[in-house]
Amino acid sequence: MTDFVHEPYKTIHVRDLIKTSLDDLVNMVSTLEFGNVYWVDGVLFVIFAMNESEELAKKELQGETYLDRIMFTKYEKYTKTAKLSNNVEINIINIQKSYLYRDLVSWLKKQPIWNE
Q1: Alpha helix (H) ranges present in the chain?
Q2: What is the C-alpha separation between 53 and 55, in angstroms, rounded?
């Protein structure tokens, strides 16, 4: 039988945080291939990973990863979709049960950009 081991990241480096309006986030996400945005604890966000490389793969094995940027907006209540007045609509995925992303949002709310 296969053994499974849960090994959370030890460190996640975030290169850029971008606070944006709901309209701008929805418009931007609607132009991307994946077209989904995540929701945790009153925050809608999209994460952009760094480009894969051999060096980053080595870091991953050591429990460390790098994110290029996180774009986010405050969004108090979870809904399955967000729709703008011009009928642009995106799917929202509720990942509230993820310890990793709850920790991320908790950290995000402590950053100076949160209150800008």
Answers
A1: 22-30, 54-61, 99-108
A2: 5
